[in-house]
Amino acid sequence: MEKTIANTVLKVNEEGYLTDFSQWNQEVGSAIAQEANIGMTARHWEVIAYLQREFKNEVPLSIRRIGKSGVVDIKEFYQLFPMAPLKTASKIAGIPKPVSCI
């Protein structure tokens, strides 16, 4: 499938996650965040950068792992991304939906 995000035609799956991480940039991430009603701050971008690093290192993501990351605790993670935090943050980061997410 294809979807136009931030004036760019991107490859996405049926749930709207990018299927080609190389198409991601901060402008795309901001547009996805806007669709999710999330106003991105420097703190949001720190968490997104962490998720992307873990993805590139092939580390499976889960809420528990993020809480133990030292980057953000679980309470703050839910404050930054209130609705389905890991799914939403992963989508903004341009990475696949984590296996731990339903």
Question: Structural class of the secondary elements?
Answer: mainly alpha
Overall average pLDDT: 94
Uncertain parts: none
Overall, the morphology is globular
- Enumerate how many helices there are, as a single number: 5
Percentage beta strand: 5-15%
Biggest sheet record: 2 strands, antiparallel
Q: What's the quaternary structure here? A: single chain
Total number of beta strands: 2
Strand order of the largest sheet: 1-2
- Element-level helix/strand string: EEHHHHH
What is the domain total for the residues? 1
What separation lies between the terminal Cα atoms? 21 Å
Write up what this structure looks like:
The chain is mainly α. It has one domain. Helix content is 45%, strand content 8%. It has a two-stranded antiparallel sheet. β1 and β2 form a beta hairpin. α1 packs antiparallel against α5 and α2 packs across α5. The longest helix is centred in the middle third of the chain and has 15 residues. The radius of gyration is 13 Å and the shape is globular.
Properties at a glance:
102 residues, 45% helix, globular, mainly alpha
Helix-strand blueprint:
Blueprint: E1 2-5, E2 8-11, H1 26-35, H2 42-56, H3 63-67, H4 74-80, H5 85-93
Antiparallel strand pairs: 1-2
